[in-house]
Design a protein that fits this description.
By secondary structure, the protein is α/β, with parallel strands linked by helices. The chain is built from 8 helices and 5 strands. The chain has a 5-stranded parallel beta sheet with strand order 2-3-1-4-5, with helices on both faces. The longest helix is centred in the middle third of the chain and has 25 residues.
Amino acid sequence: MAIGKFIAIEGIDGSGLTTQADLLKRWLEKQGRMTYLTKEPTDGPAGAIIRLTLSRRLIGARSRLNSSASQSIGLDPATIALLFAADRIDHLTGDVRPKLDKGINVICDRYWLSSFAYQAVDLDLEWVRQINSKAITPDLTIFLDIPVEIARKRIDTHRWHVELFEDLDKLIQVRENYLACIRKLQAEGHKVVPVDANQPVELVHRLLQKLVKALFSGTDFLSNGQLELINKVDETSEG
């Protein structure tokens, strides 16, 4: 039995990750390909702590200099990064790898590229990569690229609160980190493709179809040694 394909969908908050991941799963299933959709952080033990931290509902010890509740602090960035790495290995061991081994394709809404981009805001990128070195490499990573201002408007429209990395300045830095990491990973031979996601949902979905078709057909993603932003789809592409 052939091993399933592992596809990661990435992007800054507000880029349409969840929508596109769900559409891609449904499309693959219509093609007769068994597909499982998952996401990180997970609902596992480490993932639950991460979610509480990101929503600012989990705090660390009170400052020794001031015992008032107002001085309570969140988990430090290194601790959060280690939690993400632990959650990822637990996710791979208990959920992703068993399905891939059974020939089931897996789509992951966020994976290690998110860790590289978000955690490198406060930490050394190479250290973040090192603590994730035991995680498997996706067969394809798709980065949904969108202007930060548009992403923030979507967040403001659909969220009742702003999470840890969702203020405008941090989103700008995270997007820059994503693009820098993508160039680095591409140079190392990873299949990471940025897609222009500032377009109608259906058009972005068709772009993802195009990339996934290429993955299953074994088509080389490289063009003159470079991977450029994908922003259009052939008129003959299937829906």
